[in-house]
Structure formats: C-alpha cells, structure tokens
Design goal:
The structure is a homodimer of 283-residue chains.
Chain A (H helix, E strand, L loop, with lengths): L43 E3 L2 H11 L9 H27 L4 E3 L8 E3 L2 E4 L3 H8 L3 E5 L1 E5 L3 E5 L1 H12 L3 E6 L19 E4 L5 E5 L21 H13 L4 E6 L3 H8 L13 E5 L3
Parallel strand pairs in A: 1-5, 2-5, 3-6, 8-11, 9-12
Antiparallel strand pairs in A: 3-4, 6-7, 9-10, 11-12
Helix pairs in contact in A: 1-2, 4-5
Chain lengths: 283, 283
Amino acid sequence: MTTGSNSGEVLGMDWSKQPGESEISSTLSDFEDRPVVDSSPFIVVHGAGSFGHFQASKSGVHKGGLYQPLVKAGFVATRISVTKLNLEIVRALAREGIPSIGMSPFSCGWSTRERNIASADLSAVAKAIESGLVPVLHGDAVLDDLLDCTILSGDVIISHLAAHLKPEYVVFLTDVSGVYDRPPSDPNAVLLREIAVAKDGSWSIEKPTFQNKNKQVETSVAAHDTTGGMLTKISEAAAIAKLGIDVYIVKAATSHALKAFSGELKDNLPDDWLGTAIRFSNK
Amino acid sequence: MTTGSNSGEVLGMDWSKQPGESEISSTLSDFEDRPVVDSSPFIVVHGAGSFGHFQASKSGVHKGGLYQPLVKAGFVATRISVTKLNLEIVRALAREGIPSIGMSPFSCGWSTRERNIASADLSAVAKAIESGLVPVLHGDAVLDDLLDCTILSGDVIISHLAAHLKPEYVVFLTDVSGVYDRPPSDPNAVLLREIAVAKDGSWSIEKPTFQNKNKQVETSVAAHDTTGGMLTKISEAAAIAKLGIDVYIVKAATSHALKAFSGELKDNLPDDWLGTAIRFSNK
C-alpha cells in the first residue's frame, strides 16, 4: 500500500451522502485529474469484532440449528451486524482512494461442513482482483452441511485464500504488538518476535531465546469470541507459514504495520521491529 | 406475506445498535417466546433508486471501461451506495421478523455480457430459500465480459430469477398505481389494468377497452436512470408473463399491493383492484 495520509489528493470513491449532508459534496470534475492509489494487488479480510460476536454467541449461531427461531434470528442479526461493519470498512478504504469492494462469504455461496470450509469458490474474488479491485471479505454467518449453520471466522477465510491464491505474505493486524508468551495484559508478558513452523506443522519460538526451548504459550479467549481468539490466529498463521508464505502479526496503525505491508520484512527482521513473524523453517 | 403491523409481537431480527443507543436494547430472553413470521418462500429484489443511479450515470459505469479512473471510482461508489440501501432494507424487514439475508449480485459472482446476464449461479440463492431465509437481492455494478463493467438492473435480475426458480407470481412495487397509457403525471393518463402477452412476446391491452386496439403506450425515463425505467419494467414483465407466471405492477404500501402478494389475484381481478396485471394469453 502506498496511501499514507494523502486522502485529500487521491480519487475518493465513497460518493454516498454522509450524515447531515443534503447533497453529494463534490462535483465529479473535481475528481478527474486526481491520481488513483496504486498498489500491488491485495485482499482485506476482517472479523466481526464487537459487531457480530455478541449476536452470534448469545443465540448459538456457531453451534447450528437454524430451524430454531432464536438461532434463525441470531443468524439474521449476525449477518446484519457484520455487513454493517463491512460497509464501514469499504467506505473508509474508498475515501482513501482504494477501489474496495465488499464481498460477503454468504453471498459468495461459501459453506462449511462442521465449521471447516466445504465449498468456497474463489473465482469471483480472483476476477475482482484481475479487474484492479480490492475485495474486502469478512467473517460471516454461513450455511453448514452438518450443523445447518455456523460462523466462518475471518482467520479461516485468510487461511483458505492464502492456500489457493498464494500471496507473497499475509499481515494480521491486531490491537496488540503481536503474540506474547502469556496474555499481554500481564506485565511480564514477552513479545515473541519470530516463530518457526516445521514441516509437520509444529512450531517453536526462534526470537527471543528462552531457556526452556519447549516453552508453552498461554493464551486467553474472550468469552464472547465464538471463533477462538489468539490461539486460532496462531494455528491458522502456522498453517499458512507451512505453505512457505510469511505471516506477520502486528499492531494496526503503527510504523511496524507499514513495514509488514511493504514486504521489506521478507528477508530480514530489523532489530527494532515490534511484531511476530511466523515463517516456515526447513531446519 | 402475513406480517401486517405486528412488529411488536414477532421475533425482531435486527439486533444491531440504532443511532443513539449505547447498548443492545432487548435481552434475548424477550425473544424466546415470540413467534417467527411464517410465509411462503419469497425473494425480494430492489433497485438502486436515488442511492445508486447518480453515481452510476455520472461516471458512466453502465457504459463500461473499468480501467478509467473515473469509471473505477464510480463503480466503487455505486456498490457502496447500493449495498448501503440493501442493508437498510434487510434491517427494515428483519425488524418485522422476516429472516432477510442481503445477497449482492457482484458477491454472488454474477457477470454480464453486453448487459445481459452471462453467468448467474442461483445455487446460493436456492440454498438460502431452502434454509427458510428470505434473500434480498439488488441492482448492482457488476463485471461485464465485453464492457469490463456495467449495471445489472433489478428488473433483469427478477426476470432471471423467475425463469429459473419459477415462482407462482411476481409483484413489482412502484410509487404509482401501475402502468398508464402515458406518464402518470398527465391528468388524462389511464391505468392499464390488464395486459395480455402472446406466445411471440407481443403484448396488448385487455382492460380497459380502448377504441384503438393497437394503442401505443408512451413512457418517460428519468434522465438519471441508467437501466430504462418503466419501459424496461414492462418488457421484463412481459418476458416473465410469457413463461406463464403472472406479474402484478402495483403501488407499494397499499391494500392493492397486499392483495397482489396474497396470490388471490391469480384467478380473478376484482373490479376495484388498482394495478396492472400482466399475463400470458393463449388467444
């Protein structure tokens, strides 16, 4: 991405009315001589965050049973909440001149079988990328072959996209600096800067060096999170790294995140980089 | 539909926060003993209205050329506007207890070839209906095999759905009572209550009886409408009627619209019915 903070110069792409505006605020001739943001092709995937987890967990959508009125209502409520968040993210990107296009897994016809992806045709996503658009996907309530319905998490979607579209690298943006050896709220928590993933999918901490080589990582999962929290992120990230695709887990809106997006971490991790790199290791 | 105005009793399905609310307003236990709206399966399709036509027409999205910055921006802006409208319609239906699910043609992977549908897999829509959900589709900006991109109108979508899913009948809701012999703003305009469609697709006015049997219908198309206005509606309706599926064009939110939805017009049009029925005629 090469956007920076130049939203005043690029061709903004959200022309819908903002609250309080009575008319479209710009004339189109304002746009014609503005550059379009230029970047390598990429895909954005977001979770539901506070927009969907409440609806999903309280009604048990992730456990299935769509024939039950409460689950059906929760399914509808979850989709409303996540598509609302998706629209806000698409609009925020469009305002910065990124040609973002919301694509919902449910609408894409994706379905699961006991929460694993059963069918997820990527041709519409691939065609959007070929057309120079930036697909914005999200964790979603979907139909499940065995459970009737469930929640497909954004992390599982990323894994699936990575396996089939083979990106150069994957960046997970979070609200903490990366993966710690214990919950980051613990003052003694240590940031794991590099994790190596072996052929068999097992993973070990490369940096920093701990005395105990087989150190365990303690994680916590928020009670409202129906899709697994940090532990799911690590195991999905390890599955991606096993394919030879570097994964960076990094805090959003930091210089470290920008470095991860630029691709410059591929060959070396600078000493001052704060984040977790998860990489395949042949050793 | 059997909804009426019983939104206080049915299981509301929009649990997202309303503007000004700081917390989810109901507890889930409130919902558990409420009935779910029961109805025959149906699909909702809406156009873009004032939400998308401005964006589409000003930038020329319907004429293609996605490689041009202005068209690309218009494409993104159009999709934002129509998905915003779709979300509002899904939420309004969900609040009335209808298990509505937004499905965007672009996300469904539908594409056109010179504005006609080239590929539109209906399996995701069919699966949603089988699961007891109500798909809510909309006119959308889509990729076109020859033009790069164009606008797929809601009317063309309805035609395609009708041809493949064979509903009992199709209802077009508009802001006027039906099809008139000239623009309804003209004080001499006469409502055409019944139009017969022949095997060859040609159509003639059955009711009321005009002296001139080959009477022409004058229509106007709003300048901002990229997809054809009433003339497109009539010809899409005639194409549906030719399949033996009755089409009713009727004013939204009236007792006439309710009659059309109920299916009771299938065998006879009451004398006091205001609307246009378009039907296949073997004569």
